[in-house]
């Protein structure tokens, strides 16, 4: 038994010993540069009109997905309460899920529509 453990330890340690180390690379001298205002990065540009429209569409999708998730969560909790014979809590959870889901859908729709409107307005401005 001890011989088997010793052989296993030796077998597992041999690959570690077989690895060769690369010779040390000489370090190159480090150059330091002083930053001047001309070398600074240019200011980030704002979002394009197409980017605003795309972002608005994403917000509408996020709101719809979040609302659907809240409705499902409330429905699931209501089903559990109904099965465990708590009908009042079940109705409350389903109602709460629907209300919070509706809020999420509404917020996403308003934010998304605002961004889309802004993008369309900026796009039309570029044409004229």
Structure description:
This protein is mainly alpha-helical and 128 residues long. It has a domain at 47-127. Helix content is 73%, strand content 0%. The chain is built from three helices and no strands. It has helices at residues 2-18, 49-83, 87-127. Helix 2 (49-83) runs antiparallel to helix 3 (87-127). The mean pLDDT is 82. Residues 23-73 are annotated as: Disordered. Residues 48-69 have a biased composition (Gly residues).
Compute the average pLDDT.
Answer: 82
Helix content: over 70%
Stretches with pLDDT under 50, minimum 5 residues: none
Output the structural class.
mainly alpha
Give the overall shape. flat
Straight-line N-to-C gap: 88 Å
Number of beta-strand segments: 0
Sheet with the most strands, sense and barrel status: none
Count of individual helical segments:
3
Strand content: under 5%
Order of helices and strands: HHH
Region (Disordered): 23-73
Biased composition (Gly residues): 48-69
Biased composition (Low complexity): 23-45
Keywords: Signal
What's the gist of this structure?
The protein has 128 residues and is mainly α. It is built from three helices and no strands.
């Amino acid at each position: 038994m001890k011989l088997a453990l010793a052989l296993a330890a030796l077998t597992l340690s041999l690959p570690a010993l077989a690895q060769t180390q690369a010779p040390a690379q000489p370090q190159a001298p480090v150059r330091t540069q002083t930053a001047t205002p001309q070398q600074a990065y240019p200011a980030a540009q704002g979002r394009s009109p197409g980017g605003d429209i795309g972002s608005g569409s994403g917000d509408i999708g996020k709101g719809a997905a979040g609302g659907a998730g809240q409705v499902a969560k409330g429905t699931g909790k209501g089903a559990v309460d109904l099965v465990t014979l708590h009908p009042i809590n079940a109705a409350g959870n389903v109602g709460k899920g629907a209300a919070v889901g509706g809020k999420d859908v509404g917020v996403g729709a308003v934010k998304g529509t605002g961004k889309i409107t802004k993008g369309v307005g900026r796009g039309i401005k570029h044409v004229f």
